[in-house]
Amino acid sequence: MRIYKELLSRPGVNQVLWSQLLARFAFGMQTITIIIHLERTFDNYSVAGLAIGASTVGGAVAAPILGQWMAKIGIRPIILVCTLLAPIFMLLIGFFPMNQSVSIFYALLLGLTLPPIQPAARAVYPTLVENETQRNALYSVDAILQEIIWIVGPVLATLMIAFSNTLVPIITMAAIQLVGGLWFISLQRVTGAPIPRSRRKLGAVLKSKLVIVMIAINLLFVGSFSALEIGAVAAVGAKEAGFVIAMLSIGSVVGGLAFGHRVKSSSALTKQLAIVLVGDLLIFFNAKDPLWLGICLFISGIGVATAFATIGAIIGKAVKLDDTTEVYGWIGSGQNIGYGLGAAIAGFVVDHFSSTHSFALAAGLDFVAMLVAAAAISITPNFIKDKQAKE
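Above: the chain sequence. Below: its structure as tokens.
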């Protein structure tokens, strides 16, 4: 734990970490709130899945473009505009659903305007710490905080819905998004970060095989999460689904604290994805029991934050600083496409087959992600060898 203490004592690290956590917190509440809100409004899961799919496709289209714009004109103006627009579309989904098509359109606009907090924060991180070991720890902390979003967010949303209605978490999300985004861009460590302006054309970073591999893994990996979430809601109900989904994130925090900061080999990502897959496969022994589901997702979670920390470390080491916002934009695009497709397919699968089939979809996506990581070991940075060479 000493390395984390040293990291958090460095100037600017705490402020950037906590502000980006608040700015991204609404994302943890968003999916389950929109699913339950639209399912109750229109009485089916398919429209809820399509709305989540539309939102994530919108995010997929916008992410690399916003990342490139941040690299060219700066972080503050892009995040400011998005921070002001996204809460409006959240409120429109809640208060003016009108019909299924309009609700899906609002969700698309929400996806297009979600503030690119994560690409901005991860581009700033290398300017906060220069030591590679501390930088790996910083990516680990970032991944852990991301999981806190998914621990507290779904539970908070489901509790609000249980004791009031779906409009309360929607209003809360809009307020958190606005305050968090404005706090993040008010920090000098963010807006004054010495990130070189990119002169490359949009998409030039896609010439890197490693970047393509990271995008593909994120698409598949994050796609499994939406399949798990929709499957959990359908299997055990809205109230208990929050607990089940939170267990994935609790496992992720435990795994991240224990292993996320460690020096990584080229095969580390493959091993971490294998842990996630083991937890997914255990679900099928009792896929309708909330306690068993929670235990299985806790096991899966042990590999989640460590995998995201490893991906962040790989990008930080292999990509030039002036390209990082665009690369993380494409990574976000892959995540959004995966999440959207996973949600849309899972909604169809639950309506026409069963929640267990949605869990099977999640396991299949994780398996393919593991295979892609294994196939790319030869081009993946080996932090252990690099450290030994320096010594």
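The mean pLDDT is 84.
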